[in-house]
Task: structure prediction
Amino acid sequence: MVDWTDDRIAALSDSDLKNLLANAERKSVDDLILRCQAELEKRNALKPRKASKPRTELKDFEHAMSAQLADVGKRMAEKYDLSEETAKAKSEGVKGFRAHKLVGSDGHAKLGGLQRAGFVAVDRYISYRRGNDIVSLGVFLPKDQEISEHKFFVIAPQSVLDRGEPVDAIRDNHGQKQSADSGLVFKDIESAAAAFDNVLAKIAA
Result:
């Protein structure tokens, strides 16, 4: 039987060391198991960790906007009852109704379909649905444009959105179906949030 000293264990290649550990575990040689595990842990600690890629300016912007939109959502949720339970109760009888989570599961704004499909650089939004009405507030940045060119949109049914325009007339949706038939565009988030508030007042008050 081989005398597995610490020096002999240390001289093994990674694959041979793992094989020795597997054999020791199969034969329940506890002392050898512990020494193999200690050597593997030592090697893993010495391996250089892959450096995480620094986040780009665009990703920093997207992250910041997602947080700001979620903050607007929290303010609106304090002002109106935007719970999924109430939305379902108020939408009884609407075929195929599915309540919207106001924000994403991570607490930030949701990822829009246009960004998910790779059509635009940034498409983040929060939304609420009651009955057949879907209203959303989002930030939008086309591909290959400066970050400063981003816009905020409130999209809602024309019946509840004052001065709303057809969404396709105010931004390129790349043929994707929209959640409602009209929208308003803003340069700053607070103006967009005020318009979103006005829409929510009509369907969720």
Notes: Helices lie at 6-10, 14-27, 30-46, 57-79, 84-90, 113-116, 167-170, 189-203.
